[in-house]
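Homework help thread (please don't just give me the answer)

Our assignment gives two proteins as sequence + structure token strings and asks us to describe the second one. The first is just a warm-up. Here they are:
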Amino acid sequence: MFRFSSRYTIIGSALFIFMVSINFSFAATYKAFHAQGRDIISLNGAIKSGESKRFENFIATHENVQYILLQSLGGSVNEAIKIGKIIKQSKLKTAVETYCYSACFITLMSGEPRYVYQEAYVGVHRPYFEKDKIVQDTKHSSTYCSLAHYFQFLLGDNKQSHQVVSLIYKTPSKDMYQVSPSESFLDLNYYSHSAL
């Protein structure tokens, strides 16, 4: 694997909860660059409404892209699914070097293969809706069913799809579960400096 940029130390759940509390409002930014013979696009920031269209337009102007480098605290589940479908249909690889939380994980899983730096923080939790307060989604809701269909589309395996959705829904919305190599069914390729 290869090194994208400098490393960051992240305190996972605390950072996520802080960012949710201030309701991050900036849309994702994109950057195209070339590193070690690979064409890469970085997606950095919140996955907001309309983000999939912006993403699609950006990659359309970079035909040789091979990797999508993700750094996001999450955002809209529906937009993350749409971005993931674009990545899957474009046969792109995904990678995380720093952090990828919540809806970002949904997008990460669309790559083939998927790379995660050993010190990166990949976190999942149950989707939620913001009304007067945070209301967590329920199992077998329309969002739950959309995610089950999405992972079936990505992975082509009903059992594996169920495992992924169960992993997401087992952690309350206000918490964050750090994904680790022990979740082998996710087929994440972990790498470190020694493997470069």
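The one we have to describe:
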Amino acid sequence: MRGLRILLIIAVILGGLFVVADRIAVGFAEDEAADKIRVSEGLAEKPDVSINGFPFLTQLAGGKLDDVSIGIDDYEAPAEDGKKIRIAELDATMRGVEFSDSYSSATADSADGSALIAYDELLKAAKVEAAQVAPGMTAKVVGLSAADNGKIKVAIEVTAFGKKLPPIGVTSTVTVEDGNTVYVHADAMPKLAGVSVADRKMREITDFKQKIDGLPAGIDLKSVRSAEEGVEIAVTGTKVKLVG
């Protein structure tokens, strides 16, 4: 009985030491992974990286991690015409992350997450310079905000015969096109100063697109809806390349 008690005590101690070693190892691996992602994606700051699942050391020995969470703030993604768009928050959960023997590359079997683009950032894609929509009348987009049911309100400023009128709110549906483009489309055309304007001319003002090309390889935009701070985009992907 005394021998069994000693064996149990030793097992508990060894188990505790294994847990401590496992947690130390995972903390080191998270820091190293964050640094590699920072370099690979050209980030100013290290992202938040959490390697989930226990024990970590057995996953490491198998060369594949079950679940890795990544959070990036202020991610600048390449857009069209050499421009960039700032993604305020990009969070993703990667599953089945396989890495090379040298840890120089890592690819996830699948990924799901979300991204947030602030309204002032999305506004850069809109028609913010006044354009003629009818004789003696110009219009431009001056702001974006959240509307009901996941839609966006586009604020249009109209100048009629030299007089600036109060902004008009146009309710718009926001969708994803081709897996990499956010599309804002007005539900209906408003009258400007009591004047009906040609649908085509107004849509040149109200409707616009923002293409996002620079997300990590394998990540696509899935859906989009408005939120208080900006548009929330669901992202998804397979064979997502993290580094290398």
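TA reply:
I won't write it for you, but here's a hint about the kind of observation we're looking for: Residues 122-211 form one domain.
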